[in-house]
């Protein structure tokens, strides 16, 4: 398709954008099928007692997803976005069956290795494709819709899987949800999703007002170095993303065990586990758009500090109402951060290397799953579950302070407004 027939913007690409929102909801649902059920399955069917060993599935998931995120960005530039998306769904085909029929824990770990690859390829690609379609003006709104769909589906599927597990057992019924998601995701990605790489090339050909004044063509090594270390906004976003997903990885593995330790029934545990991504998912519809109006930096900083306060409350609470309040607060803080970090990457990175920068950012961000599994498992084994939550609260506080000191505002409109008043 000639770039002369393409247009950037949400309204001009609403049909494809909406389809990609649906696809990413299915991607998120693949994670949601596990969140409530697997920690309970580990204890009740496989009789695992060590938290570090129990969290091995989160560690493997995080490492495989993080590494795949990096390659997803590079491959989407080389081969196109759509082939990478389809490959991600093909990788997911055996996952539900492996979870259902696993005779030992190593099968669960292997299934999460594949699930991490699936998530890295599919979620990264839907992010890149939406940024391609909407152009620079509505990145925050676009990322809000993308992440709201994904984590809203995590929440709904977590709650539904908990309900099904309580009424029909831990296996096989809850994991049939994932089987349905794989079929729908593969069919939609193969038959309905269209390539968006030319939209990025169209944007690259236009004058931009982004924050990055460096070269428009960079090697993979230079993109990695800029996003990880040398560019203040990109590297600040990468560290904040890592800490944010450390919190999510820890919640995935330890929160169900902490809540269940007080005698809460599985249904209430599932509801508490679902509240965090539910508020996170729905809140992003507002916070993504707000970052287009207010700018990125302060929303990200406040979000990390809010997460620190929420984790501290989870560590001291011991009742369903207090934990519900804390998980809602944790979801709100995450909603401020999640789409805004992705929008900031899009602000700074030039379209010619933006997909690779998104891949590097998501490499570090999703390394947080592995970091959360290691930190949570070791601290919980050495001390207890609540100490692990306190450790995550301290890291979130440090991340928020670092952002306040180092990151600059990246939104082009906010930058121009600031410059006009100085």
From TrEMBL:
Residues of the Major facilitator superfamily (MFS) profile domain: 4-411
Name the UniProt record assigns to this protein: Predicted arabinose efflux permease, MFS family
Record-annotated membrane-spanning stretches: 12-31, 51-72, 84-102, 108-129, 141-161, 173-193, 299-317, 323-346, 367-383, 389-408
Membrane topology of this protein: Multi-pass membrane protein
Cellular component GO terms held in the UniProt record: plasma membrane
Principal subcellular localisation of the protein: membrane
Cellular location(s): Cell membrane
GO terms of molecular function: transmembrane transporter activity
Keyword annotations of the record: Cell membrane, Membrane, Transmembrane, Transmembrane helix, Transport
InterPro entries per the UniProt record, alphabetical: MFS, MFS_dom, MFS_trans_sf, MFS_Transporters, Sugar_transporter_CS
Highest classification ranks of the organism: Bacteria, Bacillati, Actinomycetota, Actinomycetes, Actinopolysporales
Organism encoding this protein: Actinopolyspora xinjiangensis
Cross-referenced Pfam families: MFS_1
